[in-house]
Design goal:
By secondary structure, this protein is mainly β. The chain has one domain: Metal Binding Protein, Guanine Nucleotide Exchange Factor, Chain A (Beta Complex). Helices cover about 5% and strands about 40% of the residues. The protein contains 1 helix and 11 strands. An 8-stranded mixed beta sheet has the order 6-7-8-9-4-3-10-11, covered by helices on one side. It has a 3-stranded antiparallel beta sheet with strand order 1-2-5, with no helix packed on it. A hairpin with a 5-residue loop joins strand 8 (about 80-85) and strand 9. The longest helix is centred in the N-terminal third of the chain and has 7 residues, at about 30-35. It is globular, with a radius of gyration of 14 Å. The two termini are about 30 Å apart.
Length: about 140
Amino acid sequence: MQKREGGCLCGAVRYRVAGTPLASIICHCNTCRRASSAPTVAWVTVRRGQFAILSGSPCAFESSPGVTRRFCGICGSALTYENAQSPTTIDVTTLSLDDPNSFPPSEEVWLDHKVAWQITDASLGQYPTGSSSEFPAK
């Protein structure tokens, strides 16, 4: 079984993802942009049983009803996204992985929210709102 580790910028929080993700996306939605202060956020979606915190205790913030985002309370690095409508999965920020190239994205979602100057990748699936998959979009 493939295992990948990751963590926050300062190293206070470390985690492991075991197995192959269910999805890998780039999200342009308003809340992801605001939560990260960036034009997009790349996410890998895994089953909750595939994700484990190895060290540290991330802080939690309810960014919208039923949505919890976790981050390092020391350095502020965004780590996960949990949606009550999808209780069996968790989204992990791709760029918090030690090797973010392990799971390249296959689609871009919420393009209707994209900032005008952000360049998209036409080789990826393009979706005006949610994802093509069965998993709830951000």
